[in-house]
Amino acid sequence: MRKLSWPLWLTSGLLYVFLYAPIVVVIVYSFNSARHGGPWRGFTWQWYATLLDNQDKLAAARNTLVLGGLSTLVSTLLGTGLGYGLSRYQFPGKRFFSFLMYIPVVIPDIVMAVAMLMFYSQVRQWLGFLELGMTTMVLAHVTFQIPFVAIVVRSRMVGMDQSIEEAAHDLGATSLQTFLHVTLPLILPAVVAGGMLAFTLSLDDFVVSFFTTGPGASTLPILIYASVKRGITPDINALSSVIILISVIGTVLPMLLQRPAKHRGDT
Predict the structure, then answer these.
(1) Phi and psi at residue 34, in whole multiples of 5°?
(2) What 8-state DSSP symbol labels residue 171?
(3) Digit-coded pLDDT (tens) for 231-260
(4) CA nearest to 76, candidates 199, 174, 214
(5) Chain segment 161-178, per-residue pLDDT in tens
(6) Torsion from C-alpha of 117, 123, 126, 130, nearest 10 degrees
(7) Is the Cβ–Cβ distance between 218 and 63 less than 8 Å?
(8) Residue 222's closest CA among 207, 235, 233, 237?
(9) Sign (positive or negative) of CA dihedral 143, 206, 215, 116
(10) What is the CA angle 249-250-255, rounded to 5?
(11) pLDDT band per the 50, 70, 90 thresholds, residue 78
(12) Bridge partners (DSSP) listed for residue 32
């Protein structure tokens, strides 16, 4: 294995500085005692404590967690079924349906948001329900979360030895019993990883939430956007730092869960 030369070290270092310097600045200034940002006035935990006394931010945090929890639960169930079906069954148009699964992944968020808004508008016009609010936000998030869960689960299914499931069938297990007692335990790390990825995507989403939200259903990203228009304050930096921490945990945890699954697939 060749050693990394110093120009590549330098380039890599500058690249990581460019990527992470803004995040570091936000975290550092969340501890700045200055009330209106700007120059460093000293270290303080005040702005993190302030978050707990702000009812608007607490309501937005509650809405964010409810939205992420509900949409993740639904999308994990549906995405697992989609990934399993595309991996284990043959049916007409399978390649076409596999292609359709990737479209929500690559489509721009703004296009997805406008499409969902127009869809809800047509449903209200013709059927008289689906007013904008938490329900429409959950449905919109489920729509773009399902493919990510399905892709993670399907990638795990591809690397799994099917002879284990065939042996269960030969021993008299039904398809449901085989899935619950053989397949699901083997793909559980991928299911959890897909669910964590879906939750992280829901937590960070702004565009789709902004277009599909209604009165009383503001989330943290929407609240931050509205607050930033009046100027960035240290409590917004503290709130952003909390979201960054949760996002990092939601990203690292699926990677840790996927590692043992990969090793088992290699053996």
Answers:
(1) -65, 135
(2) T
(3) 767 778 888 888 888 878 877 776 776 665
(4) 199
(5) 888 888 888 888 888 888
(6) -110
(7) yes
(8) 207
(9) negative
(10) 90
(11) very high
(12) 43
For residues 240 and 225, give the distance between their C-alpha atoms in angstroms, rounded to a whole number. Answer: 11
Q: Write down the pLDDT at residue 82.
A: 92
**pTM of this prediction exceeds 0.90:** no
Q: How confident is the model at residue 72 (pLDDT cuts 50, 70, 90)?
A: very high
pLDDT given for residue 141 in this prediction: 94
Token pair listed for 169: 């069938």
Helices (H), the chain: 6-29, 46-51, 55-88, 94-106, 109-127, 134-158, 163-170, 175-178, 184-204, 207-212, 220-228, 234-266
Residues 6+ away with beta carbon under 8 Å from 214: 131, 132, 133, 134, 136
Residue written as token pair 């296009």: 111
Tokens representing 20 are: 């992470």
| Of 176, 199, 180, 212, nearest in space to 253 by CA | 199
**Residue 142 CB neighbour total at 10 angstroms:** 22
